[in-house]
Write a structure and sequence with these properties.
The chain is α+β, with helices and mostly antiparallel strands. Helix content is 18%, strand content 34%.
């Protein structure tokens, strides 16, 4: 079965406000501050233009962004519509057929754009900074404001994951944008446009659903060992992608599978499922499983009724602490001589109360069947060992 190609891109969007800050007596530069709450947007992977992306973003923000009137003259002035001094090397006048080179030049030119004062202040600043970088000759290209506001309320900028550094300005040239699922986008607002069109109160306003104040239904934080055994022995219907090959009709058919217990051993080992795996995630299961320390009756689960009644007593527990990446194993075991429980943690051994035995860390359970003959043989062997003299062999 073929995997479907991803046709959508998902990436976060930051809101930033462009503010002017004074860096010298006659020169100011742009500072961008984050505001509001970020968005998550999904866009088509192919044939996405600047205008189409802008419209998608505007649709997402319809609730708290107000469009200005057509004759209001509002719009976020982009750098090419402001009077600016752009310093570029002479070799940038040469045309290049390489699209990647063009993008790098555009990005470099964009990063060198500064917002300046009037022409007299520009001349003063030029004369003051004329001796800088004398090794490279540079041309002055003056971009005059066209006198018409931009049709967009904000500019689109690719940024780093924190939204604090510019990477590349997106170009409105009707060409498809080159975006990936690892992109981070910023909407750069002019302060005046933001003040008039962006409603901070509506943007951060939220409506609490009645379910927020309701206490969530408590999950069953404890299940019994008997429930686990019944689920293990229940009939399971195989999925459509997991058919069973029938030897009679020589075809794959949908079927059911079921485990049955015919007989049980003297020492019963129960392995609890503590790790869950699927196609998307894996996790450690910390559900508390309640298990009896004495008289675990397995009669209802065994088919062969001719065997001795399968009733078991717990003699040991293996515990696992930690998660999927690593952990630590300990054990509880019952001493057959003094009938007390002990904890084994690496080289440390200490006595514990039987109330501590049942815990969320229980991983493997060890049960011993109650058998008169078996118990008597164990007791006889113990007594014989206690009467044995040093050096005596049996």
């Amino acid at each position: 079965m073929r995997m479907m190609k991803v046709i959508l891109l998902f990436f976060p969007v930051y809101q930033r406000e462009k503010r002017a800050r004074l860096t010298s007596y006659s020169y100011s530069s742009s500072n961008k501050a984050l505001f509001g709450l970020p968005l998550m947007v999904s866009v088509p992977r192919k044939n996405l233009t600047y205008k189409a992306l802008y419209n998608i973003l505007m649709e997402r923000m319809t609730r708290f962004v107000t469009l200005p009137e057509e004759d209001a003259g509002m719009g976020c002035k982009n750098e090419q519509e402001s009077e600016a001094d752009v310093e570029m090397n002479e070799d940038k006048n040469e045309e290049s057929d390489n699209e990647d080179c063009e993008e790098r030049e555009l990005e470099k030119a964009y990063q060198n754009v500064h917002v300046n004062g009037d022409e007299n202040e520009d001349d003063n600043r030029d004369s003051q900074n004329g001796d800088n970088d004398s090794s490279t000759q540079k041309n002055k290209v003056k971009l005059q404001c066209k006198g018409k506001a931009s049709k967009y309320l904000f500019n689109l900028m690719l940024v780093n994951s924190y939204g604090s550094s510019d990477i590349q300005a997106l170009q409105d040239n009707e060409k498809p944008l080159k975006l990936t699922g690892r992109c981070f986008l910023a909407l750069d607002w002019d302060s005046k446009v933001k003040e008039k069109c962006y409603n901070d109160q509506l943007a951060e306003e939220s409506e609490e659903h009645e379910s927020v104040h309701k206490k969530p239904a408590l999950k069953k934080n404890c299940i019994g060992l008997n429930d686990c055994i019944e689920l293990f022995l229940a009939k399971e219907k195989l999925g459509a992608n997991d058919p069973w090959y029938c030897p009679s009709c020589k075809k794959h058919q949908q079927a059911t599978k079921k485990f049955d217990l015919w007989s049980l051993p003297k020492i019963l080992v129960v392995h609890l499922k503590r790790f869950s795996y699927n196609s998307f995630w894996r996790d450690k299961l910390d559900t508390l499983v309640s298990f009896p320390l004495r008289s675990l009756d397995m009669s209802d689960h065994v088919i062969n009724k001719d065997q001795p009644r399968p009733i078991y007593n717990l003699i040991a527990v293996s515990n696992h602490y930690g998660g999927m990446g690593g952990g630590h194993y300990t054990a509880y075991a019952k001493n057959c001589k003094d009938d007390k429980w002990y904890s084994f943690d690496d080289s440390s051994v200490s006595s514990v109360n039987q109330e501590q035995i049942v815990s969320k860390a229980a991983y493997v359970l060890f049960y011993q069947r109650q058998e008169t003959g078996f118990q008597e043989s164990m007791e006889e062997k113990t007594n014989r060992s206690s009467r044995c003299r040093p050096g005596c062999r049996h």
